[in-house]
Design brief:
The complex is a heterodimer.
Chain A lengths: L3 E4 L2 E5 L4 E7 L6 E7 L6 E7 L4 E4 L2 E6 L4 E6 L8 E8 L6 E3 L3 E6 L1
Parallel strand pairs in A: 2-11
Antiparallel strand pairs in A: 1-3, 3-8, 4-5, 4-9, 6-7, 7-8, 9-10, 9-11
Chain B lengths: L3 E4 L2 E4 L5 E7 L5 E7 L5 E7 L6 E2 L7 E3 L5 E6 L8 E8 L8 E2 L3 E5 L1
Parallel strand pairs in B: 2-11
Antiparallel strand pairs in B: 1-3, 3-8, 4-5, 4-9, 5-6, 7-8, 9-10, 9-11
Classes of the chains: A mainly beta, B mainly beta.
Chain lengths: 112, 113
């Protein structure tokens, strides 16, 4: 079945710098790759997603890139701000079932 | 518009006790999901439902049962709780299948002693 690996587990960056979180997946049939942000004590919330027919997608300071050949996708956050501090999860879906397979999460710390 | 709500927020059970977690959504979503979240393991799907009256097993269904008698509600039951079921449980819903955003509830923290 699908397996999603996420790195790093913790990322600490200076406010204003960029942050990059990477995920790899194993099932070449996966076609949907969302990123969720989870703040302390809350449920995850979708921040951006990408489908397999697209290589890159941007939304203000957030971007996601997808390399289908290498089976990896990345989240890029530019000009980081204190409110970006949270746990970020990547996920991958397989059209043969209704399941999202999740990465283990990255705790992003923005240092003032 | 409350979105997805979960009750209770916290619960402590003794081994062998049973309980039901309730999830409710007011967005008229067809799909609903129950996940558990453990440190360092991300989210794992327990059971899901593709519509009223339907349920299906996810990645880690053992020890849990679910019911979807009404479209807006999805219940997760633990018949005989075990310490391994200590976790944070999240309910989510989505308009259609996986290519659409999942909306999550605030979670239920369950401790089994």
């Amino acid at each position: 079945g699908e397996n999603v690996e996420q790195h790093p587990s913790t990322l600490s960056v200076q406010e204003g710098d960029s942050a990059v979180i990477k995920c790899t997946y194993s099932d070449s049939a996966s076609n949907y790759f969302p990123w969720y942000k989870q703040e302390l004590g809350k449920g995850p919330q979708l921040i951006i997603d990408i489908r397999s027919n697209v290589g890159e997608k941007k939304d203000q300071r957030i971007a996601v890139t997808l390399n289908k050949t290498a089976k990896h996708f990345s989240l890029h956050i530019t000009e980081t701000q204190p409110e970006d501090s949270a746990v970020y999860f990547c996920a991958a879906s397989n059209p043969s079932n209704y399941q999202l397979i999740w990465g283990a999460g990255t705790k992003l710390i923005i240092k003032p | 518009n409350a979105g997805v709500t979960q009750t209770p927020k916290f619960r402590v059970l003794k081994t062998g006790q049973s309980m039901t977690l309730l999830c409710a959504q007011d967005m008229n979503h067809e799909y609903m999901y129950w996940y558990r979240q453990d440190p360092g393991m991300g989210l794992r799907l327990i059971h899901y439902s593709v519509g009223e009256g339907t349920t299906a097993k996810g990645e880690v269904p053992d020890g849990y049962n679910v019911s979807r008698l009404k479209k807006q509600n999805f219940l997760l039951g633990l018949e005989s709780a075990a310490p391994s079921q200590t976790s944070v449980y999240f309910c989510a819903s989505s308009y259609e299948a996986l290519l659409y955003e999942q909306y999550f509830g605030p979670g239920t923290r369950l401790t089994v002693t």
